[in-house]
Design a protein that fits this description.
Layout: E1 6-9, H1 15-24, E2 29-32, H2 36-44, E3 48-49, H3 53-57, E4 62-65, H4 70-78, H5 83-86, E5 92-95, H6 101-113, E6 118-120, E7 123-124, H7 126-131, E8 135-140, H8 143-153, E9 157-163, H9 167-196, H10 200-208, H11 215-225, H12 235-252, H13 257-271, H14 282-289
Parallel strand pairs: 1-2, 1-4, 2-3, 4-5, 5-6, 8-9
Antiparallel strand pairs: 7-8
Helix pairs in contact: 4-6, 9-12, 9-14, 10-11, 12-13, 13-14
This protein binds nicotinamide-adenine-dinucleotide.
């Protein structure tokens, strides 16, 4: 059977390798990015360039987007030159960006009015997961549409059906709460230890061996002890996700006091010029509050 043509919008850290996997998987592709250099990288992978999201949508069976934030998804789908201005009824739309569940539902509703089913399908696994096609994909929308999209998701990682439109984004927000709070807990543990004069390496070793163990601590703890905050996942993107979490909490009437605190601490990170560092750098804010610096051990 002939493969469907995919239109891919947003060829950044995540979108570029994802498009590569889809092309390798045999899908003819058309791509679009507002930044010409990014668009050229997609063309180098073997995709045809489109002049706009509208132009792209008119030529494809499936649209996938991977852009930064809710306003970018609104621009890409609802804008004058956006997907919905050009799309044919029946085209499958999949937004894989991390955005507000409220925006995801709004865009999916507008898509349905054009006769197009839409899934929200944010991911976790980071740039490494994108390059290695090992993303965890959290999907919201119609379950039959999810089944139709599975062959595409399987080229990118493992997809889980989470519920109706917006549910994928809700699960991603839950993921980002847990990760932010894990980082803050580890940061406070290390700073208390440093103030009391206990070797932070011992703290990490002991905590990792017991009930306090977390993946965040195992992966990032040793790098913090070396003063290594190269991203990974940039703090400003996690700040964006905490904005989404607060907006969702307001919309659904959930009281999330620890997430509100996490949001403030990430705001402080950005105010101190640390937004481009890895999100583990929230420890620098906790250090500053106690006027203390963790001892750094370089190799
Ligand atoms: P990025 O900034 O590297 O790439 C985004 C791309 O989208 C850019 O090339 C930009 O020019 C393009 N773009 C923006 N608005 C557009 C529009 N209206 N039309 C067409 N193109 C547009 O970002 P990224 O790191 O690839 O992240 C993309 C999404 O994936 C974000 O929502 C992010 O939170 C999420 N995410 C990222 C990671 C990660 O580790 N980087 C992990 C999980 C999820």
């Amino acid at each position: 059977m002939e493969k469907k043509t995919i239109g891919f919008i947003g060829l950044g850290i995540m979108g570029y390798p994802m498009l590569g996997h889809l092309i390798k998987g045999g899908y003819p592709a058309i791509c679009y990015d507002i930044v010409p250099a990014a668009l050229e990288r997609g063309v180098a992978l073997g995709a045809k360039p489109a002049a706009s999201a509208k132009d792209l949508a008119a030529q494809v069976d499936v649209v996938i987007s991977m852009v930064p934030d809710s306003p970018d998804v609104e621009a890409a789908y609802l804008g004058e030159n956006g997907v919905l201005a050009g799309v044919r009824p029946g085209t499958l739309l999949i937004d894989m960006s991390t955005i507000s569940p409220i925006t995801a539902q709004k865009v999916a509703k507008a898509a349905a009015e054009k006769g197009c089913p839409m899934l929200d399908a944010p991911v976790s696994g980071g740039d490494v997961g994108a390059r290695e096609a090992r993303l965890s994909i959290m999907v919201g929308g119609d379950p039959d549409v999810f089944e139709q999209a599975l062959p595409i998701f399987q080229l990118l990682g493992k997809a889980t059906y989470c519920g109706p439109s917006g549910a994928g984004q809700v699960v991603k927000a839950c993921n980002q709460i847990q990760v932010a709070l894990n980082f803050i807990g580890m940061a406070e543990a290390l700073v208390l230890g440093a103030k009391a004069g206990v070797d932070p390496e011992i703290i990490l070793r002991v905590l990792s061996a017991g009930y306090a163990q977390t993946r965040v601590m195992d992966v990032r703890g040793p790098r913090i002890l070396k003063g290594d905050y190269a991203p990974g996942f940039r703090a400003r993107l996690h700040h964006k996700d905490l904005n989404i979490i607060r907006e969702a909490a307001r919309a659904y009437g959930a009281s999330l006091p620890a997430s509100a605190l996490a949001h403030e601490l990430f705001t402080a990170m950005i105010a101190n010029g640390w937004g481009e560092l890895d999100h583990s750098a929230v420890v620098k804010v906790i250090e500053k509050l106690s006027n203390c610096e963790l001892p750094v051990k370089k190799d």
